[in-house]
């Protein structure tokens, strides 16, 4: 049974984040700084481990310049012909660095590269590798007028098509958290399945109506993200929040791994070194509108496009007074899917995953693999010291079948 009460220290941190956001709004300071923000991920996290790495850029139809990293070979130069390409997409408030914080033998991209795959890492718009635009600056509020809807329509198809064009092959896909949501939404709209061989979904996020994270549910039900946007902040996190987080995490008696547990569930198997790397590289920015969209999902328990809250505004965007739904039951039944979810995950809750699995009940049985890890929480799927054996080995076996 999960505790119904939050630790008082979590509540104080949560309230402090609200207060610092309001204080920062008064100054209108929209700077963003983070360790290694001007150093590419290839140089800072991949080449340092002995791997060849390439930085790529691709431009979406709506003008966002996205960064991708490619690891074409393993450490031992396994240059096999016609390697299968595989694209990894990270979760909310993360970027591609979230896959690279463990040693090579424990990090999925390095494992896949060493096993002969052509590995590509994508970065959501607004993160440090994807802050470019053909006409807008991140200092322009218009730059942040998007939610994960735009990732479904623009970012994901553009990145997938680019990898397809570069390699000449259909590719495999691995998503974590928000990275699973965007591909599921795309599949439900009958998109991308002709470009992908399979999709592996780690800590899958689709329905969020039963989310047990008290911090996230409180934020949603108190309309915190909406308040932040009204205060004049189209982007989060801002510099003040990052500095506050770093200060809190260094305070005596505060263990920020406990804070992460309060948000995503008590992770079973994270090392101290990977958690140190996590807090040096993350969180990464996203739009306030994106957080509002996730809050709407929590409050409504549905998967639908961004709700503009007024019928006339929805009419303007959708030609109907309510947002269109993403119907998970419309996902093509023959697309190979691998789902791995955890019993201690407070974001991808087992009950919400159960609703998704109900939608997939008619999926071709030989094209659907479901793995349940009772002891895993949200970050375990990308940072656990034993995920290489418990999750990545079955995932790779699944990929090789398809």
Automatic annotation (TrEMBL):
Ranges where the Partial AB-hydrolase lipase domain occurs: 44-102
Gene3D superfamilies attached to this UniProt entry: alpha/beta hydrolase
Active site per database record: 177 (nucleophile), 345 (charge relay system), 378 (charge relay system)
One Pfam assignment: Abhydro_lipase
Highest taxon of source: Eukaryota
GO BP: lipid catabolic process
Residues annotated as signal peptide: 1-25
SUPFAM superfamilies (UniProt xref): alpha/beta-Hydrolases (SSF53474)
Keywords: Hydrolase, Lipid degradation, Lipid metabolism, Signal
Recorded GO MF terms: hydrolase activity, acting on ester bonds
Family to which this protein belongs: Belongs to the AB hydrolase superfamily. Lipase family.
Entry protein name: Lipase
Organism encoding this protein: Pyrus ussuriensis x Pyrus communis
Lineage: Eukaryota, Viridiplantae, Streptophyta, Embryophyta, Tracheophyta
């Amino acid at each position: 049974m999960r505790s119904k009460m939050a630790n008082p220290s979590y509540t104080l941190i949560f309230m402090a984040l609200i207060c610092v956001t309001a204080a920062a709004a008064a100054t209108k300071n929209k700077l963003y700084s983070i360790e290694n923000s001007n150093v590419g991920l290839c140089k800072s996290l991949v080449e340092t481990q002995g791997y060849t790495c390439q930085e790529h850029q691709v431009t979406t139809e709506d003008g966002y310049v996205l960064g991708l990293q490619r690891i074409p070979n393993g450490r031992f130069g396994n240059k096999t012909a016609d390697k299968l390409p595989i694209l990894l997409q990270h979760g909310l408030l993360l970027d591609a660095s979230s896959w690279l914080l463990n040693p090579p033998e424990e990090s999925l991209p390095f494992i896949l590269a060493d096993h002969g795959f052509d590995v590509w890492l994508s970065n959501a718009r607004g993160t440090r590798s994807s802050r470019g635009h053909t006409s807008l600056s991140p200092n322009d509020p218009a730059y942040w007028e998007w939610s994960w809807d735009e990732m479904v329509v623009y970012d994901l198809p553009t990145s997938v098509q680019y990898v397809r064009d570069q390699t000449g092959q259909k590719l495999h896909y691995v998503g974590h958290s928000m990275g699973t949501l965007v591909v599921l939404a795309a599949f439900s709209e009958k998109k991308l399945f002709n470009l992908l061989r399979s999709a592996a979904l780690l800590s899958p996020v689709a329905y969020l109506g039963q989310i047990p994270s008290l911090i996230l549910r409180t934020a949603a039900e108190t309309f915190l993200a909406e308040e932040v946007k009204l205060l004049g902040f189209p982007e989060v996190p801002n510099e003040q929040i990052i500095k506050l987080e770093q200060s809190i995490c260094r305070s005596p008696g505060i263990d920020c791994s406990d804070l992460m547990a309060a948000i995503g569930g008590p992770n079973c198997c994270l090392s101290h070194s990977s958690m140190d790397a996590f807090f040096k590289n993350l969180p990464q920015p996203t739009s306030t509108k994106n957080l509002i969209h996730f809050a709407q999902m929590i409050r409504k328990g549905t998967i639908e496009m961004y709700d503009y809250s007024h019928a006339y505004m929805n009419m303007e965007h959708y030609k109907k007074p309510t947002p269109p739904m993403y119907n998970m039951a419309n996902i093509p039944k023959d697309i190979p899917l691998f789902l791995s979810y955890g019993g201690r995950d407070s974001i991808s809750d087992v009950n919400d995953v159960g609703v998704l699995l109900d939608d997939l009940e008619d999926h071709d049985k030989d094209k659907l693999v479901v793995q349940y890890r009772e002891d895993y929480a949200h970050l375990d799927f990308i940072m656990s010291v034993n995920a290489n054996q418990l999750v990545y080995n079955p995932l790779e076996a699944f990929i090789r079948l398809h």
